[in-house]
Amino acid sequence: MILKTFIKRLVPRVLEDDISLLSPKTVVLRKAISHSGFKFGLLLFISIILLGILGPFFLDISPYQQDLDKRLLPPVWIEGGSWDHLLGTDGNGRDYLSRILSGTRISLTIGIGAALVGMVIGVTLGVIAGYFGGWIDQFVNYILTCQLALPGLLLAMTLVFLIGPSIPVVIIVIGCLHWTLFLVVTRSVTKRIAKLDFVSASNAIGATKLQIIIQDILPGIINQIIVIFTLEVGVAILAEASLSFLGVGIQPPTPSWGLLIAEGKEAIFFQPWLIVLPGIALFLLVVSINMLGDGLRDIMDPKSKLE
Amino acid sequence: MVVIAVALTLSFITFFLLNVAIDPAQAVAGEEAEALEIEQVRQQYGFDRPILIRYFEWFKAVLTGDLGISYYWNKPVGSLLLERAPETITLALMSVMVTIFIAIPLGICAAINPNSVIDRMCLGVAVSFQAIPNFWLGLVMIIIFSVTFPIFPVSGDKTYFHFILPSIVLGASSVPPVMRLMRTGLLDVMEADYIRTARSNGFFGWKLILNHAMRNALLPVVSVLAVQLGHKFGGSVITESVFSINGLGRLALESILGADIPTVQILVFVFAFTFLILNLLADILNAYLDPRLR
Amino acid sequence: MSYSLIINNLEISVKSLIGYKKIVSDFNLTLHPGRKLGIVGESGSGKTLSMLALNRLLPSQIEVTGGSIFFNNKNLNNMEKKEFYREFSGKKISMIFQEPMTALNPVYTIGKQLRQAFLIHNKGISKKLSEERARSMLDAVKLNRIEERMRQYPHQLSGGQRQRVLIALALINEPEILIADEPTTALDVTVQKEILELINELCLNFKMSLIFISHDLGVISKVSDEIIVMKDGKIIEEGLTKKILKSPKKDYTLGLLKCLWKLEKGNPSLYTDKEVPFIEVKNINKEYQLPNRLFSKRKKLSAVEDVSFSVFKGESVAIVGESGSGKTTIAKIINGLEYPDSGEILINNCPINKIDLFERARLIQPIFQDPYSTLNPNHTIGYVISRPLIIQKRFSSKEIYHNAIKMLKLVELPATFFYRFPNQLSGGQRQRVSIARALILEPQLLICDEPTSALDVTIQDQILDLLENLKKKLSITIIIISHDISVVKYLSKRILVIKDGKIVESGFTKEVLENPQSSYTKELLSSVFRIFPPKRNFIN
After folding, report:
1. Which of A101, A280, C377, C457 would staple A55 via disulfide (CB 3.0–4.6 Å)?
2. Domain B79-293 sits in CATH 1.10.443.10
């Protein structure tokens, strides 16, 4: 009963003029519930996470356990496959399903970690540049141009290779090379907010610069930060996969999806599923994250209306 | 001016990073070299001197056209670049063509009929292309078009025909951002006051879009295309290694794996400089298109 | 040629999830050749939408859902889209809009835009002929240096010049009807007067009829023979302009007029304390650097030049000037939000930059123009009002709450607004909240920067009343900044007129208005369209 009234409260049945009586949070919530792309992305994302984190507990085969007698077994739906190895085995006879599932965790860890690193760098620089302006802004702009001009992937490859590949190194390197979007957006939004009258009003009531940044500016940019964060998680996951694919990211035998595809490349002519399957996993994860991000963008945009 | 300043900074940063992160003497001498041998190399090549002095020497040499000698290939870096550059330039230009011919028409179609079936399809294409890793798309294309249906060659760079699959793969990654920008740009412009003015003067349909909306909507697209073309050079690493094209990207990968510092240094610098020049060109083109920027 | 435009029971609705919601209904209008019709109403009254509907320019979610529009017995509502654009848009009916700054395409020259607009209805005409036509139109709207204008881009023209180009654009195909949608609202008063005169003259020369939309009865009275008064999507009253201005039949129209009459009467009850100089401004200067362009040198703009004046305790002083005159910069400098390049400001004989932030906050508080950006959308009204006290860190949370509630009452808002968010409030309510925020620290000086210019006339009236009452109740000093002389007259004892950053005239309001000395003040005063109350007084 309570649930029913709760759902009723959220269902979008309000008219244009009534929306003006809702609090900002309710509006966002109602938009979220009526946004199909967002809902689909969220559902997909949650199921991938559940599979990736809980899945390995239900499989009694370790992703590292080799069985040289059962090398390159095809998945169950191709002739010669068996139910013991649902998605077949790789060149060393390791269970492919188990390897793909445990790859989820690595992708997510690196994706979220790297996006966090990028967020800290980008948002800090962006807010500072946008709020203070002047030569600080020009200096940050200069750093931004430098960063944009650098060939990111190439530099990441070099750095990871030279420092020595490990998960923390990959996270930091990818994070340090993916903060430009955070910077550009937070800077422009901060600039816009800093010009508004309520910031002048805060100045006039004696608020300090730090108080203004935290209480007036950050609440205004948090929505955009969440959206970019989500999208950057997807970008970082792809970057990790590329590095691992080229052999300068996660090292074997850790089951990173990029690495699985690189290993499968040897068997491209005869066992294409070794390439196709981890690619699909990667695709689904990134698609779900991007749909979440796009949905969040629509939901949090004050200009978009309830449909 | 900014371009030169940024280029200088970048050359220094890459030089510094590469010379601090790794012991160059060790790299030249090889992994199994003994301590004594390494020390010898260090003195012979002058690696024992302070990094700033070495940077200035390197920079002076680069300015006079001496790009150094690759440890790994035992060749002057300059001739290596010249050898490999044409492949990458071909690939980058062809892939940008692919992007332009797919993304811009799709973006326009989506903007003309917002929320229609075409629009939703375009959005779907954008979302999924953004999620497809480049190297995987390359491999899947090989599986489909070279292995299952042998239409295109698997790899190599002998004829332009060899470049078709790689260009599509490399170009596909830029389709989503360019298409989205074209769509939102055109949608925004169509809401603008001056479009309303044009409508009230009797413009409608294609004439309205071509005469009044297109030029404004293209402004941001030009900048983004320049950025994307710049990324193509840096991003060619993956595509070139998947399709075994002997271009700059593959050279970069091989040099990195061979710890060949002089080559990597120059490559990073060349890619960055190309990017800066392309952006400058885009700025000039934008100033031509938009009188307010002049 | 004789024709007529008849609109019958027009109904416009906005599409939403559950169906349609009417926003304009029962809109009737008859227009004969050579007539000039004014439509007046506050924002949201549907005056613009009904004219956009006539021109088929409605935004995508809004549709015509009933009624008919006849032009010479041809029903425009049933007409094919293409036919309408080909036969009517720009050719029979033309429209000019409110925002001259954005209504021209920024990437094409004036000449090209005019030529294209001519070509669209006259296919196959030579370039020379169309250029000739464009030139003659620029001449008709009285722009000077026509050859140069033809080659210029919109951003190189001033607001008034752009509006002239837009009028040329609208008239280039000699339409029968010109619809002007608040064409002068975004312009300065002196420019507004010129544009209105131009429109009047062109209507005669081109034998057009005119539909003029405005929120300002003063403007409407200058350009129309008949008036339609609209409110909430309905026509409230219609009739001859003279009659309506003298003896309106409906209460709403009377209310609108009363606001104007009251401003015209001025305010007799302005009083002051003993004249102790409270704030002294001495020779302040301020320059701004204009942003860099790609191929041009950096320019400096002098916003305030050698301005000095003083304000006495309990006094109200007005600073009047057109946009770009530097009046807002002066306000920000007095408030300590900007620093002058030279000169100083003394408050109670103490330089303002020596006063610490908290102390300054208890002395001076600002009220801003735009009710939509003056409140942080992420904070509740309660937080917004109590934040000044929270930042001062000297009050218990109970004190703060009681004070905030007291303030809500003071500005005549219900206490339940405490938990609301700014987006749930109307413009007038927001402006009340910002007054409450400014007053909670009990400051001695209130700087009001165009406090009412973004509001509808009736709301404007209420806010001015509120400020007046507060001034009496709290004996507070007020500096009011405005472009609108009538607002100033109502609220201030002394007046400073500034132009291009310099004070051109100052003195007691009454004297300045009745006997202006500088030519600029005279020009300003003659540009204001006043509506005098009739002899028989409605106010009391």
Report:
1. A101
2. no
